[in-house]
Structure formats: structure tokens, C-alpha cells
Amino acid sequence: MSVPANIVEGSGQHSDREFSRFLRIALNSTTELEYHLITARDLRLILDTDTLTLTNQLIEIRKMIYGLLRHLASKSKNRVTHSDEPANSARNSPLEPHHSASKRQPL
After folding, report:
1. How many domains does the chain have?
2. What stretches in the chain show pLDDT beneath 50?
3. What is the CATH number of the domain that holds 89?
4. Contacts of residue 86, Cβ cutoff 8 Å, sequence gap at least 6
5. pLDDT of 100
């Protein structure tokens, strides 16, 4: 539950930098979740095949979070290189397609 909760909480922040901080916390939570899966397997609470399936899904979630972090970092770099663009131009968050993220500040 903490992985999606941190992503949602981060998406409501005022800057991409703050959002990125919550994404990194979500990444840390994936490590914690992996530990819980291994422990549950070792205690024979879940099958090895289920552990493998869930671990593979967890890896895909990590890839998505890393991708979003890279996207936010590249947006920040583009803002620096395109300094002729207005600083307060409307930007949309990938997680909030109908919400203007113009309140966000650069990293």
C-alpha cells in the first residue's frame, strides 16, 4: 500500500523536485515489499511461483517509477536549456492528465 500511496501523495506536491522525492520513497517501499515477499515465501505463506510472479510485477513497477523519475529530471534539464520559455507555462503531470501542474516549480 505504501508504494501507490507515496506516488499519489507526491503527485499533489508543488514542484517536480518534491514529487521526485516521493517517487524515491516509493522506490524504497518496493524494496521493503520485496523483503516481505521473500519472508512470506521462506515462511511458506505463499508459493514459490507466486513469489516469482509478484517479484516480476514489482520489477516492472520499479522500471515505471525510474522512468517517471528520468522524465521529471529531463523536464528540469529542458527548462534550464530552454530558458526563453515562460517560467509559469502550464505543465501537466503524467499522473494528473486533467490537472494543470502549473503550480509546480522546476527541480
Report:
1. 1
2. 87-104, 106-107
3. 1.20.1440.60
4. none
5. 41
